Amino acid sequence: MGVGGVTAITRRAHRTVQVRPADLGQDYPAWRITQMTRSDGGDGGWWAFRHACLTTEERIMGLLPSIARRTLVDLVSEVAVQDDIAAALRHPKRVCAHA
Question: Which of 24, 38, 89, 98 could form a disulfide with 33 if both were Cys (CB 3.0 to 4.6 A apart)?
Fold first, then answer.
């Protein structure tokens, strides 16, 4: 991924964090994002679970069925990367060879 992709992901992550966590489903509809609480009542971090099952090929290409991170910013950044990988798999770039 080029520098432009990293910048886009960072902007997207910061924008998402500024909204209510309940609104994350609008920005990341392929995921169910939730904050977990430990059994002792402490912060259990943030989790994202895909709504759809992944194929073997998608897993081989680096897609994950779920993600756990300590902070919402870290989670949203990783979800954005996952969405970028999924988009690249759906719309592969074509390389044209000229004779």
Answer: 24
